[in-house]
Amino acid sequence: QVQLVESGGALVQPGGSLTLSCVPSRPISNFYSMGWYRQAPGQEREMVARRFRTGTINYSDSVKGRFTISRDSTNNALLLQMDSLKPEDTAVYYCNAYSIMTGNPYWGQGTQVTVST
Length: 117
Prior knowledge:
Elements: E1 4-7, E2 11-12, E3 18-24, E4 31-39, E5 46-52, E6 57-59, E7 67-72, E8 77-82, E9 91-99, E10 105-107, E11 111-115
C-alpha cells in the first residue's frame, strides 16, 4: 500500500507564501503522475497542479503564475510553492499519485491551508 504524507499547511495572511511537501512511501519514479488537489468547504475537490513523469506540468487557471509544483529528488518529495496567496486559496490540500504499474490513484490525508487576516 502506498502512503503519501503531506506537511506544510498553516494559517497565512493574504499575499503571503507557503510551501507544501508530500513524501510518498515509494520513489517518485514509481508514479505516472503526482499532483496537488484542494477542497474548500461545500465545494468539490479540484486539481491545483499536476506533474507527470515526463516532466509535463499542468496548473489550474486560478493558481497559474502564483503556484509552482516541483520535485525534490534529494528528499523524494513533491513540493508546492504557493505565493501571493488569496483568501480563496483556503482549502484542505491533498497530495495525489497514480501508480505507473496499476494506474491506481493514491491520496494523502490532507493538510489545511487558511489564508486570512
